[in-house]
Amino acid sequence: MAFFEQEIHDAPTTFLSKYVFSFDHKVIAKQFLWYGIAFLGIGGMMALLIRWTLAFPGEPFPVIGHILFPGNGGVVPPDTYAMLFTLHGTIMIFFAITPILIGAFGNYCIPLMIGARDMVFPTLNMLSFWLAMLSAVLLLASLFTPLGGAAGGWTSYPTLSTLIGSAGIGQTLWCLSLFVLGVSSTMGAVNYIATIITLRAPGMGYFDMPLTIWGLWLTAILNAIFLPVLGAGLLLLTFDRVFGTTFFLAGAAATSGSGDPVLFQHVFWIFGHPEVYILILPAWGIVSDLLSFFARKPAFGAKATALSMTAITILSTLVYGHHMYSTQMSPLLTQSFMMLTMTISIPSAVFFANWLGTLWKGSIRFDTPMLFSLGVVFVFGLGGLTGLYLATVSTDLYLHDTYFVVGHFHYTMAASVLLGGFAGTYFWFPKMFGRMMNERLGKIHFWISMVGLNGIFMGMMVIGHAGMHRRIYNPFVYEFLQNLIPLNMFITISALTMGAAQIVFVYNFIHSMYKGPIASQNPWEVGTLEWTIPSPAPHYNFKDIPVVRCGPHEYGNPNLVGKDFQYQTEELVKA
Amino acid sequence: MALTEARNALKSNDGDKIIGSVAMSVTLVSFGMLFLTLMMAFALYRFTAPVWPPAGMERPSLLIPSISTFLIALSSYIFINFQKNIEKGTADKRSLLFVLILGLGFMASQFMFWNQLKSHGIYASSGIFPSIIYSFTWIHAAHIVAALGLMAWLYGSLNTPDKLTAVKVSSIGKFWHFLGIVWLIMFVTIFVL
Amino acid sequence: MNLLLNLFMKHFVTSADAASNVGFWEAMKPPIDISTNGHLIDSLFMLTTWLILFFFFFVCLGLFGFSYLYSKKRNKKPFYTHGTSRKHIAIVAGIGALVFIMVDMQITTISNRDFVNVFLNYPKEDQDIVRVQVLGQQWAWNFRYAGKDGVFNTEDDVVTLNDLRLPVNKPVIFQITSKDVIHSLYFPNARLKVDAMPGRISRMWYELTKTGLYDIACAEMCGTYHYRMQAKLTVYTQTEYDAWLNEMQDRADFTTEKDKADLYWGWKWLADTK
Asked: C212 in contact with A at a CB cutoff of 8 Å?
């Protein structure tokens, strides 16, 4: 229930107040979207450099290799390789997926879908974006320091990430950059939570919210609770590096220490496991909605879906230990973490069943957003199920730190989230820019991406099962990995294919922004609140705050006349 | 009509207070998790160490930390009175000034404490116990500085009170009491026990 | 494209030579299992795979089947249901329970059994076992055998660099630590790995079944030359091993520089605390 009505502000007039330092949640969302897409490009390029090195060791990277690494004949040097995979992980998680899924869709969808005129704290929202910008500057600046950027993996375990393992200011800047980003995300999270609690349109109970909002809300809650945990870890690590404290130093290397490097792993994964769900929950929410919108029937068991997402949110805080089996925690802890991890599959199975139940006896329209949503069901099925190998401790003893893990978490965190993000982009593009994206190019983009990413990540799981461990510059110095050269080449070629498909997307996105056909108010015939206002949305969103009278998924009601869906502002037609 | 009724109800409803309290609660949960993580780290070091304080270390004298505790507790108490007066409608600027001075006194006592440690040859790099003492007090002090900044801003804005003043006072008050509680927990666990 | 094709051909041909006549499916298999317990991990992996494929088959059946049957063209009128009837809830809950009972309970039970009964069930100290201390450092593995006196960290210890030799058919216990950053001692052929952490001693045990020369790797990112932190494992028959160890022990008496403090990175063997 809403507690008050925000006033309609005057439209901003100057360029600066309209496009740069804007308070408008829709502009901030677009800023986050561009920010995320730019970093997606950088992170993707890094991935290609990594893949090239693994498939063709010692061969110069085509075209840009000689520009980037002139001292090494165009070949990626080993220290740069370490930097590349570190920053690939950091950038993709914190600077690409977080801004797109949470920054862009969170900002865009929350006020529009709950019927508010803006976020509850517009200034905080703007500040959140510009802090994220500062964080990006810090991270990119670290690349130009004398010893280069961070190179200890995105997890940056001490003691490798202390001065013992990585000298130079790059790693310190990495810590600071993530700390600033954490502050920015926490600000965003406070804003999202408060907005959803206090600004829902009159009549909208929690279960009348679209599932997208459920996903974003749970994400924001996890962010607000667990980002400070990472923040504390990063602060201690920074103190170790700058002020010579000894939190994470131990053994022979610590002259005065009785610290403990494993503590950082605990802190990191207490944050890190919820982080996985922070990234995937918005995508789950978007997919749960889109499946219903395009199958033209109500979301099957929407309440159960929302509740199982909540259950997973809670469970996600209790299972982090499965990342640390190889550190030999006490057996009791290991066993408890294994059991707890397994319980996650119950709520997961519930919403998978609900997703398929939504499709069952629908009247499915295969528009691009729907294709991407179906893609998420497929890849998340694979990603989620392969997690079982890593949850059982004995198989994890073998698979831990191999490419199997890499394949698994890319399926869940990269493939599903990326496809979910694309689904959302294609879906809300008309509302954002007032024009439609090209359907044919969208479908080409989908199919090539789908083939590419399954090639990459399935391939990774196969080579991981064959024993190839992570983060190695040249796997083929090992005799037992030499069989895997052809497979590694296959993965790299899949990656290049996937990269090429994104050019189609970028072209489609930019071209449609200016030249796409003008979108109607409600091109997808969907009943949630954002489709009751013109496209693109005016700066005040709703002239009159809407009053909500039915749920977000009212499709295919046989008693409807003239159309097959209901707006949330309409009284529910009895079936 | 129900529609206009619902909209009118919206207009008449003053939501600032609820928003303020929701947002501040979430913020405090965030800050709480930050300090909770630090306390977890402390507990881990404390309970895995064979002897505590670690060999060759002495406990710092309790005098200055006790003074800090007294200052911050007193300031919290005065703030509660100040808030009561604000809710009654009197802009009690003198109390707030007193809280500010006590806060600055707390910071001064922290600096004295750090100087005292240094004069005993105990630096942040002298081992895990000094690492904990310095880092945790630094992080706490940084929050105190931020809170004092907020209070100075509040002091300025009391000249032109509006309907948001009460929300500001209660939010900043919550933050200040929270920092007081954190200090108390740190004082008891790190210095006394 | 041409460039890619050339590269592909070039590497494919050379690699095909190197991995002489390894078939397509053969290349995807894990390295040969040389330990008594590696098959536990392999078989659990296979079991999990079959269970997963079973459920993923149904996911695909729903996904592709419903997409085919209920496309807009084929099914103009959707079935109006919120999936909240008692029957629907029961089906969904049933699926959840089925996954938990059929997959999770099974593999958790098996994994837990193996973990407790085998991987944590260290051989008794009074048994005839081989004891090795391992020290990881950037970027090499140091191995230490107790030498003639049977006591670790003494002058007559046999210390090797990146060269681990073990007898076949005899339990081996490792105690592992690290000098600088975190490493992870990884035996792909025994399906085991454990982290080597500064300030802590971790343990691992296995028994080998096949003689030969195998790879040892570091599985935890440990710096620029992480990929080169490679050691060799030589598995001998008991007689070969005894001969090698004797020779090494004799040599240790003469050649090691006994006053070098660096040499004494070992520690007193920690007896089984369980």
From this structure: no
